[in-house]
Amino acid sequence: xxxxxxxxxxxxxxxxxxxxxxxxxxxxxxxxxxxxxxxxxxxxxxxxxxxxxxxxxxxxxxxxxxxx
Length: 68
Description:
The protein has helices at 2-28, 43-67. By secondary structure, the chain is mainly α.
């Protein structure tokens, strides 16, 4: 049982991080954050979303540092 819980936590971590990153970016730009899905059925899609969100945050940070 514990192994299944650990596997689920590791699998869901990228999805949770992607959602948090999307929310942070949206709020930092003054937009409404996207609605959270009720259940994540496609971990590959969520991983791609996480990577895109991280890239967007990095680009945002670089643009802020270039403005200084």
